[in-house]
Design a protein that fits this description.
With 434 residues, this protein is an alpha/beta fold. It has 3 domains: 158 residues, Rossmann fold, CATH 3.40.50.300; 169 residues, Rossmann fold (3-Layer(aba) Sandwich); 79 residues, 2-Layer Sandwich (GMP Synthetase, Chain A, domain 3).
Length: 434
């Protein structure tokens, strides 16, 4: 499968974030948006005329001076050039061409990726005439848009999807398990142990080392694709770019995965970047299990598995109905149990329940605990069906769908989990007018 990423690049104050927000609101076509995954960068999953892609706002660097600032942006452009299928190079019609625009243009013109020049803030005919000066930057295509009003954005998106590759469908339809997490959590070691072969670094970019591998696992009656996103190493003065790069790698892996295996370093515990990546997987409705690696290095007198598991679940709440396994890749402790559990999560995520069984469940659940009334009016949930999505999602039809309280939604979700075993997978409930 392919993962389509569209990156918005440009100097500060050209309107990248406004354009990004416009994309999130367009035609109500957004499946999900994840903001604050890493500081002030934003990520959204868009659907335009039936084609999905991830759009990323690459703004937000703050440096001590113009030279540091420009260097940071150039590094970010290089990362976007490596990861994105389409790059939107945004400039400002109100300001005209600046030195930084020209520097970025020179970098982007050398890219083998599709680069589309987007002239923003074209709000009137005079600005449209001024926009012609940007042809001098040397790009073959130029689109005039207004992020504020939305003018021109539809034509731009039509052009974008022309250059996104179609998804390659695996005829065997094998499960895809992605190993995700922070640097040095043991992701590569786990993949090497399971695949029984060493993987090598393939790319060096802006202070990060990437070891991106995809392997075919076929042992003990189990067959799947294992994806590794390991190999990120911190180096001096590259923390900003490293964060940006690692999250882009996580997005690519998570989007294509059925189950995400989040590896946590037991010696460090769950950190903020672990939580960011975990929430990204949950937002994308993927199956999740957590492997606490390097458990052999922990003093069991002071840290019990039960206590650590409770601490992890408290930090990842509210979604905590998922497996947590304590492993040591070095000692090969419970690594094959992790594989078995990943398959359990995959089956839970794929579980289909007949409508008749669901409605028997609904009747018992509502008789045990009726929906709270709304302004004295009884709320009645008549029936429910499972929706045809890759993950468990259900439509419940009732007389006042907008007034179902969050507490009652949680009750129904918990009952579903207890009754049908959806451990490790998010559940979506949609309440609709009967």
């Amino acid at each position: 499968m392919s993962s389509n990423i569209v990156a918005i690049v440009g100097r500060p104050n050209v309107g990248k974030s406004t354009f990004f927000n416009r994309m999130l609101g367009m035609r109500k076509a957004i499946i999900d948006d994840v903001s604050g995954v890493t500081r002030d960068r934003q990520y959204g999953v868009c659907d335009w005329t039936g084609r999905q892609f991830t759009i990323i706002d690459t703004g937000g660097f703050i440096g001590d001076g113009e030279d540091v600032f420009a260097a940071a942006i150039r590094n970010q452009v290089h990362i976007a050039m490596d990861e994105a299928q389409v790059i939107l190079f945004m400039v400002d019609a109100a300001t005209g061409i600046t030195d930084l625009d020209e520097q970025m243009a020179q970098i982007l013109l050398r890219s083998t990726k599709k680069v589309i020049l987007v002239v923003n803030k074209v709000d009137n005919s005079e600005r449209r005439m001024d926009a012609h000066e940007f042809w001098s930057l040397g790009f073959e295509e130029l689109f005039c848009v207004s992020s504020t009003s939305g003018s021109g954005t539809g034509d731009l998106l039509d052009e974008v999807i022309k250059h996104l590759p179609e998804e390659d469908v695996d005829d065997r339809n094998l499960p895809r398990f992605a190993v995700i997490g922070r640097p040095n959590a043991g992701k590569s070691s786990l993949v090497n142990q399971l695949l029984e072969e060493e993987r090598s670094i393939v790319t060096d970019i802006a202070g990060t080392t990437r070891d991106s591998t995809e392997g075919y696992y076929n042992k003990f009656g189990k067959e799947f694709i294992l994806v590794d996103t390991a190999g990120l190493r911190r180096k001096k003065n590259v923390h900003e770019n490293l964060e940006f790069y690692s999250v882009m790698r996580a997005i690519r892996s998570i989007e294509n995965a059925d189950v995400c295996i989040l590896m946590v370093d037991a010696t460090n515990g769950v950190e903020s970047q672990d939580l960011n990546i975990f929430r990204l997987a949950v937002k994308n409705n993927k199956g999740v299990l957590i492997l606490v690696n390097k458990w052999d290095l922990i003093e069991k007198d002071t840290h019990t598995a039960k206590a650590v598991e409770q601490e992890i679940k408290s930090r990842i709440a509210p979604f905590s109905d998922l497996p947590i396994i304590f492993i040591s890749v070095l000692e090969k402790q419970r690594i094959f149990k992790a594989v078995d559990t990943a398959f359990d999560v995959y089956e839970n995520r794929s579980r289909k329940i007949t409508t008749s069984v669901l409605n028997n469940f609904l009747q018992e659940a509502t008789e045990y605990y009726s929906p709270p009334t709304h302004r004295g009016k009884a709320i009645s949930i008549k029936y429910m069906v499972q929706l045809p999505t890759p993950y468990p999602s259900f439509a419940l039809f009732c007389n006042y769908p907008k007034h179902i309280q969050a507490e009652y939604k949680s009750y129904l979700e918990n009952r579903l989990r207890e009754t049908f075993n959806f451990k490790g997978t998010p559940i979506k409930l949609f309440f609709r007018q009967k």
